[in-house]
Write a structure and sequence with these properties.
With 325 residues, the chain is of the alpha+beta class. It has ten helices and 14 strands. The chain folds into two domains: 6-144, Creatinase/prolidase N-terminal domain (Creatine Amidinohydrolase, Chain A, domain 1, 3-Layer(aba) Sandwich), CATH 3.40.350.10; 148-319, Creatine Amidinohydrolase (Alpha-Beta Complex).
Length: 325
């Protein structure tokens, strides 16, 4: 089943008409992943989807049986009939079925330049819509509101992640010599024990010597996790393509006055931000308020306050500073 609703799909056709785009092409392969493939078709990976201005959806998958199981499209084209070259399949569509002397293709900004050049060399009469960033931004906005279908999957991903919090607590209490890697492996196993789930991203595990880093490198080390001070773990569960994202701060031993102050200002900033979330409240104002609270304590926040969740871990919308462009 594809996540997109009929209403949103119809808005895509209106967008294509407005921009004078004959065919929208979304590709997802190892060199350039694009979750909009799954959003538009239900097919999880490794394929090209074409949507023409009449609303016809055509999928060219690497794995045809997988596409037959998961996709919801008008037609699946087997690339084996075109020497396993999707570009040749597209050429056949353009030249023998749609038969237009000139076709304008709209592509996502993630589409590789190599593919664009290859298609222009093989297919005569094609032009590209010259503002691919508009297509990217359009899909970000489209996916920023979730359907009931998507919300159910997000809730399931969140529940899987939340169940593991007790396992993390037990590890911290009963495994004083456990390493960051030990905790990372535990979280990965617990998530994998749930049918249809996987980690949303590589867990970030940091003891008190590394917890100040914005994104840890390596993700988890061989160091003991329970060093005195402030530690954290940042992890998420993926359920049928939809992601959760959970950060847990953890205290070991008696905290210093400065560490207690950091903890208090963080909690105040967090709780104030939660209370501000309301319809028509600009997200940048929530970010700004949280940041100002931390600044009063003498601290900086060199990152965005938060983000949406969906087929990517960082889906729109973004809770960040006020846009300046």
């Amino acid at each position: 089943m594809r996540p997109i609703t009929e209403e949103k799909f119809e808005s895509i056709l209106n967008f294509l008409e407005e921009k004078k785009i004959d065919v929208l092409m979304i590709t997802d392969y190892e060199d350039s992943r694009n979750v909009n493939l799954q959003y538009l078709s239900g097919h999880p990976t490794d394929a090209t989807i074409l949507i023409n201005s009449s609303g016809e959806t055509i999928l060219i998958p690497w794995d045809v049986p997988l596409a037959e199981k998961h996709s919801e499209v008008d037609e699946i084209i087997n690339p084996a009939n075109f020497s396993f070259n999707p570009t040749l399949a597209i050429k056949d569509l353009f030249e023998n079925r749609w038969k237009k002397s000139s076709i304008t293709i709209g592509v996502h900004s993630k589409t590789t330049y190599g593919l664009i050049v290859k298609m222009k060399a093989i297919i005569t009469g094609i032009k590209y819509f010259e503002e691919p960033i508009q297509i990217t931004q359009y899909f970000e906005k489209l996916r920023s509101t979730k359907t009931e279908f998507e919300i159910k999957k997000l809730l399931k991903a969140a529940k899987i992640g939340n169940k593991i919090i007790d396992d993390i607590k037990d590890f911290c209490i009963n495994n004083p010599d456990g390493t960051e890697k030990d905790l990372s492996l535990l979280v990965r196993k617990k998530i994998g024990d749930n049918v249809g789930s996987d980690v949303a991203f590589e867990p970030l595990v940091a003891n008190s010597s590394r917890a100040h880093e914005i994104h840890q490198h390596p993700f988890a080390s061989d160091q003991r996790f329970s060093l005195p001070g402030l530690a954290l773990i940042d992890f998420g569960a993926k359920f049928q393509g939809y992601n959760s994202d959970i950060t847990i701060p953890i205290s070991f031993g008696k905290l210093s006055d400065e560490q207690n102050k950091m903890r208090e200002f963080t909690i105040k900033s967090y709780e104030t931000a939660i209370e501000m979330i309301e319809i028509d409240v600009p997200l940048w104002k929530i970010h700004d308020t949280a940041e100002q609270i931390l600044k009063k304590g003498g601290y900086l926040m060199p990152y965005s306050l938060g983000h949406g969740l969906g087929l990517t871990v960082h889906d729109s919308p973004l809770l960040s500073r006020k846009p300046t462009d």
